[in-house]
Amino acid sequence: CQAHNCCALRQKIEVMGLRFEKKKPWRVASNERAWAACALLLFGLGTGCSGCVEKLVPDKVAMAVGRLTVRNAAIIAKLVDADAKCGFASAKVARSALVQGSVGGPGAVVWKVEDCRVDFPAATLVSTDCTGVETTVKGSVTVSATKRVRGTLTGDANKPVIPEGADAATLDVDVVTDGFTVYKTDSTAFLTMLQGALHFSLEPRLALSKSLGVCAVSTLDLTFKDIRYKNGAVVVTDESRSFSVDVPSSSYRAQVGKWGPDENSLAGRLIVWDNEQTLPVAGDTDGLDPAYTPQAYFEQVACTPDLATPISYGCPSLKEQVVHGASRLTIKQLGTIASLADADTRCGFSSPSVRSAAKLNGAPGTPGSATLTISTPCTLTFAEPTPLAADCNGVTQTVQGTVTVTGSQTITGVLSGDVNQPVVPDSVSPAVITLTAQVADFTLRDSVSSNALTAKSGTLSAIIKPRVAIDTRNDICAYVTPVASFEDVEWSNAVLDVVNDGLTFEVPISQASFTAQSGTTPARTNYLEGVVVSEGLVVSVPPAGSEPILDPAFDAAQYEKSFSCKPGFKMATDDASCSVTKALATNAARLLMLAAGTMASEIQNDTHCGFSALLVKTMPTQVTGADGEMGSLTWDVNNCRVGQQGVSAVSTDCIGVTTYLSGTAALNARRIVTGERDSALVIFDSIIPRARDALTLQLTQATLADFSAYKIPAGQTDPYAKLVLHSGTFSGQVVPALAERRSKPGVYDVGTPVATFTDIHVQNAPATLYVAGKHFSFVINGAQLAGRNGTLNGVSNTVSGQVTIGDETVTIPEGTVLDPEFTQTRFDSTYACTADLGSLIPSQ
Q1: Maximum distance among all alpha carbons in the chain?
Q2: pLDDT tens by residue, 247-272
Q3: Omega of the bond leading into 310 within 30 degrees of 0 (cis)
Q4: Closest to 402 (Cα-Cα) out of 456, 338, 330
């Protein structure tokens, strides 16, 4: 023995990452037993005898087997629970569920799996935790198991029981193993279960959902009981050694994570080979997982969607869960009732009787407010399920039942003089709606959700403050959005039916109060908090440990998409974006460009005193260049009145849009044409335009009298926007882009709507703006503008400059669009049919 250095051997054995080390030389007695042990050790080391060395430390081996068995058992339970062929997720097992108890009351449901073989011939990834640790399995197990869930029985085949708490579920599992292995990327140790039987009972835990307020999120907290081997044969492997272990029997328990007083523990007995060990063995204080820390455990599950943190198992009762659902659906129903009352033309806020009785504070065109009041109860009845208009995502709400509404709506802004919309908002939250609704079997559901609320009876009241959005066609905050603050929301003496996944639960409410926010504001997003009293139970919304979430499925982008498809829609970010003066200035700037273009066109084509009059054409005021040379001709007109009393159609484009003119403008103007002097006419000076910018029209001064130019698309009777300039002076320069004549290449004399505007000036012009059914009277004290109609040289559809209204000057920044609905394709189509047009004006 001494010849083989046995007495000096320092033997190291690694099992599950734990190092056992003999720190002193073994001392061998002079008896046969000592010599035999040394000989056995040397034989094991020399011949590869599996387990020979490890049998010397059965306590360490027992701990390794006990720990790795729990890891394998947890994965086996997960696999059979998810298996749709013969496991708990299979249709056969679901159909055979045993229901214990009466529907609507407490009870339990039992499912059984029998001889379900789960087979992984090749290594297969089955999960990845939040820290990136992967779990892979290989081999086969045959499982018979029973799952029992306690809770409230629903009578629904798909969801027969609603769990009563975090510990409502238990599984009893019997496994026959066939070379089954579980690998984890954060461990070099693994256990292969070669053969034998394993039994265990498992109690999985569900933690609190931060959005739902109920225990609905799976965690890694697992309680194992009665872990029993029968004639097991396993192989323990770590990075340096693999050895076989017989496990004749066991009886122990384990806690993965924490539950109650137990945390990361195992206890009981386990026999390895013929050596019974008590777990944990003496001197081993590392628990079930030696690497476990509460922080490391949390990191493994921290990314789990909807997990409330810190992790909580304080689960509300089913009654509380249903109350939380009713609270969320209440806000949704309240918003719908407010919209119905606002749109109703019979007795609601849109009815003639309510609008005509509006209380106005202020004069038209000035800041003020309007209050509309439904003083006589307005009853809205939907005898059958009635679909409302679909939103921009195609989701349709359906209502049925009766609601009777009273209340008021106060809107602040600038009074418009329009009885239908008496106020133009000048802030992002311009309205305060105070509403009281008596409900009778009033149901709201939508086309995508399995949840619905029926208010069977009760009184619902609230103060609602909706936010508005900009219609970029007129820069007015004209769109009311579903983004709204709900204050002082109260139910009294109500009976509600909550439908969830086809199940109906009645919620009597003696009193409830909420504060909520639908959508997003700078202060809050998707928010709900309050308190509900139901049959003496006081329920806080949200429950302790949960976030105050209105809609658990809320997605900000998807939510805004549901209402942002309206023409010209743009969310208003702050009060400044709803400035009425800014909107008036922007609209005026756009329409002044149209006025300039129309004046230029009219003076160019006028045959009475304009540039098309014979005496004007034949008498240019300035001539440069000789015949055949490049030069220019200039013509001037003075006090040429264009327009007329009343309305006249002055042109219709290729897609049927007609330009109308009313009122008059007395013009002093100059026309300059550059090009090749023409010798063909020997009596009159003439010129051939050879470039797109050959024509310049200077409106040196125009005296206005109720002058207005506006467009009406085909099939419509009224313009979307019109500006009437009652008086004042106007000047500016217009350079139209001329197209080449198809019949005479090189001659540019075909008119197009593409035009460049510079030095547009307006002074002392009382004006009335008509836009979207509203009208505003104001004075344009001054305007300095430039712009581009259409696209030329890479610049497209712009207006910029300054407009002064009263004592406020509004800057129209570079890049402001001239026509909010402009597209190049549509614009080109407006003149594509022009006679003798050689080609469209190129954009570059």
Answers
A1: 146
A2: 999 999 999 999 999 999 999 999 99
A3: yes
A4: 456
